[in-house]
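Handout, section B. The chain below has 675 residues.
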Amino acid sequence: MPKILLVAEKPSVAGKLAQALGDYSVEENYGVTNYILETEKGEIIISPAVGHMYSLEQKGDGWDYPMFDVEWVPAHEKDDSSSYVKKYVNNMKKMAEKADAFINGCDFDIEGSVIGYTSIKFACDGDEENIQRMKFSTLTPSDLRDAFNNLNEFDSGQTEAGITRHVLDWYYGINLSRALINAVKSQNRYKSLSTGRVQGPALKILADREREIQEFEPEDYWEIYLYSKGLEAKHVEGKFWEEEKADKVMEKCSDRDAKVVDVNRRKYKHNPPVPFNLTGLQKSAYRQFNISPKQTQQIAHNLYEQSLISYPRTSSQKLPAKIGYKSILSKLKKQDKYSKLASKVLNKKKITPRNGKKKDEAHPAIHPTGLSPGKGLSKQERKVYDLVVKRFFATFGKPAIRQSLKIKLDIKEEKFDAKGKKTLKKNWYKLYEPYVNTKEINLPDLKKGQKIDVEKLEKEDKETQPPKRYTQSSLVSKLEKKGLGTKATRAQIVDSLYNRKYIKDSSLKVTDLGLAVVESLEENCPEILSPELTREFEEEMDAIRDGKKTRDDVLKKAEKSLREILEKFKNKEDDIGKGLVEAVDEQRRKENELGTCPECEDVLKIIRTKNGRFVGCGGYPDCDNSFPLPREGKIKGLKNECDECGLPRIKVSRKGRKPYYMCIDPDCPTKDDWD
C-alpha cells in the first residue's frame, strides 16, 4: 500500500482534513501533531506546514547591490521571529521518510501552491512527478472529501507563477531598498527605507494626489437655495462664480412666491448587489465598520478556517450553482438570527443569484457555508460574518422599486430644482438591512401650476475643495483597477507604507519622507514607479501560469532592467542621499515635537541622551523646563492635551503588552491612583 504525505497549510486545517477523511490515528514529533489514515488511495499522512516555511535569501555575504543570487532557506534560519517554524520543518522531514508520493492540500491559490511545493521540495525531497493537488473553496467536510476523492494533477503553471512572483519581488524589493538605504549611508547616516515592484507605484499614486492637494488653490463661488415647507430647491445655475450675479438673483426673487412649472416622477429598478469578491468585502467592511482592508482579509481568513465562509482571496463575483444554493440556505435557516431571511429566499419560485462580471478560475465569490458560528467569534468576526451572510441573501432578492421626483420651480424666470427619491418596494433591501446604502429624500406632493410660499431664500458662500485623499479601502480598489499587486497582497502594501512612515492618518496623507522617496525615484529611476512596468510583469506571470512563458525568461528580463536602473541610481547616490537625509531629519524633528512649553511657549520635544530620554524645552538654556519619560517603550505624541493639566499626552507602546496613554506631567491628578 503506497504511503502519501498530504501537506496542510496550517495545523488547524490538518485537523479538519483528518476529521473529514475518516478514522485516524495521531503521531507527534517535536510537539507537532500528524494524522494517519487508511484510505483506498493508500496510507495518508497529514502533516501541517505553518504558512511559508521557506523564504528567499541571498547566497553568500555582503550588502551591496545589485544582487540576484538567491536561494530558498527555512524561515527560522533567516529570521529569529520565525523560530517556531523549525519544529514543523523537522517534523515534516521525519514524516516524509515514510512517503512514496505527495499531495499539496494547501489553499488553492498562488501562495498555497508555493507553500505546498516548497515544503515538499525542500523538507521532503519531493519533485513535481509525484505531487498531486487538492482543490477546494471551503473547509467543510463534504468539500474536503470531494477534493480528496477527485485529486488534480500538480498545478505546475500556478506554482511556477508563484515562485516567479516571489523571486521578482525579492529582486525589486531588496535591490531598490538597499539603493535607498545606501544613499542615506553615503551621508554618514542610517534610516531603514524600502520600496518595491508594487509598493513604488502605490506610493506614487498617493504622492501625486498629495501634490495635487498641496498645489490646489481654492476658488470662491456661491449657491442659492430656496426653502419651502418640506422642500429644498437649488438654483439651476449651480455654482455662481460672480457674487454680483448671485446677488441680482437674490434681489429678483426676494419676497415672491414660486410657481411649480414641472413635476417629473419616474419609477426605476434598483438591482440587487452582486456577490462579494475580496476587494468588494474589504470596501464594504471599511464603509460599514471602519475595519481596514488588512484586518478584513485576516478576519475573513479566520472565518474560512472555521469553515464558516468560502475562500476569501478570490476575484470572482459569481456564485455557481454547484455550491448548492438551497443546501446553504437550509443550513442558514437553522440559525435563529437568519431563519426568517433564509425562509424568504427559499420560498422564491426561482432561486438564482445576480452574479457580477468578474470571475476567478480557482474560486467562486465569497459566500457562507451555512454552518453555525456558535459563540466563539470575536465582535469584529461577527460583524464581517453577518455582512457576508446578508450579502448572500441579497443577491437572490428581487430588484427594489424606487421613485425619483424632480420638481422645477420658477420665480420670475429664475429656475430652481428640487430632487427627491423614495423606496416604493424594498424587496432585496429587506434581505440586506442594515447595510443598504440608499437615501430617502421625500418631497411634498405638488402639482404643475401650483404656487408655493417661499419661506427662505439663502445665498451660501462656498469655495472649491481639493481632491480627497485616498482611504485604505479606496487605494486597494485603485490598485485593483490598475492591475497592481494581487488580491492577497494589496492590503499588505498599504500596511508597509504605514510601517515605513511614508503615509499617516486614516485619510492617507503622504509624509515628507514618502514624498522625498517618490521624488528621488522619479528623478533617477522613474521606471520603478511605472504602473505599466509592474502590470507588464503581472501579465507575464499570467503567461507563466498558462504555460506560454518560462520563469527564466521573465527573471532574466527583470534582472537586465534592474541592472540598468540601479547603475544610474548608483552614479547619483550622493545627491539622492542628501535629499533623503533632509526628509528623514525633518520627519524625526516632527515626531519628537510634543507640544507647547507652558513656561515660555517654545516647543516641547523629546530629548535623547546617553543616559536616557526626557521632554525638554526648545528654548533651553533660557528655559530649563523638563519632564521625565518612561524608560521603556516606544513614545508617540498624541494630538490632544490632558484635560486636567493641559500638557501633551503620549502613547507608550511596549513589545508584547498593551500600549498605555498618559500626559507628561508626573504630578498630574490623573495619576493619583497609579501604583
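Note. The longest strand covers residues 258-270. Compare this with the example in section A.
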